[in-house]
Every structure is written in C-alpha cells, then in structure tokens.
Amino acid sequence: MKLKILSLSFLIALSACYPTSGAEEEIAKVLMKQQSSWNQGDIPGFMNHYFNDKKLTFASASGLTRGHQKVLERYLKNYDSPEKMGELTFNMLDFRELSDDSAFVIGEWALKREGDNPSGYFTLVWKKINGEWKIIHDHTS
To answer: In the predicted model, is pLDDT for residue 75 greater than 80?
Structure first.
C-alpha cells in the first residue's frame, strides 16, 4: 500500500508541476516500477527496464560499464544484501521528449538505509523499443 501511495503522489506532484506528455507519464510509471522492484529486493526486475543489449551504457564515478549483463553484474555486486539496497525513492526533475521514440530524464535518487542515506542525481536516455520505454544510457552520480 505504501508503494502505491508513493507512486500516486509522485504522479500527482509531477503533473502539478507542469503539463505532461504521454511519453512522460509512461516513463514516470516505469520509474515507479523500478523503484518498486528495487524496494522488493528484485534487481533483475529493476533491470528489466534497461535496454537488454551490449550497447547499453552506465556511467558513474567508478567509470563506464557497457552492456546489460555487465550493468546487472555491477548492481548485484554492489547491492548484494537488503541492508545495502535500502529503500529507494526517485524524484523526476526534468523531462525532455527528443522525438516520438526518445527522451531524457534528469532526476534525483535517494536510498534510506540504516546508518546512512546516500543520494544523488541521474540522467537517463530513453528509447521506445518494441512499444516499451527502455533506458539506453544511465549516468548516475
């Protein structure tokens, strides 16, 4: 129930800030699915929304990771326990539709964990592939 309330309040807050496009609403829903998967300890479910291809890129302070499998392995290694995963929240700050099948999102992420609460920013490049929005590039700091 808590996750449904968070998702609904996120979408209401998003639409109150500025008008949304269909793509923006669809991508916001995908982000909420990712947040829910993460908070259930389901990293493969979280990764379902990334482009499943060797061309996927993930950039962070530790460098550039290429390929869906390598990004998945990175997440599984760095977040190998519920304590490390914590509770994730996303906040979309900016959305730009680049074309009918591409967009980018700038947002904030935060983890609530016992002992610390890391947070930062992300830029996601999205592409609509076979009717589904997929992340093709993630830059997280």
So the answer is: yes
pLDDT of residue 21: 75
Report domain 2-140's class.
alpha beta
* Contact yes or no for 75/43 (Cβ under 8 A): yes
Closest CA to 138 of 82, 83, 90: 90
3 state SS of 45: helix
User: Are 88 and 38 within 8 A, CB to CB?
Assistant: yes
H helices within the chain, ranges in order?
Answer: 2-17, 22-39, 43-47, 68-78, 82-85
pLDDT of res. 106: 98
Domains of the chain, by residue range, sit at 2-140
Distance CA 56, CA 70 (A): 9
Any idea of the CA torsion for 38, 1, 132, 126, to the nearest 10 degrees? -50
Q: Is residue 119 very low, low, confident or very high in pLDDT (cuts 50, 70, 90)?
A: very high
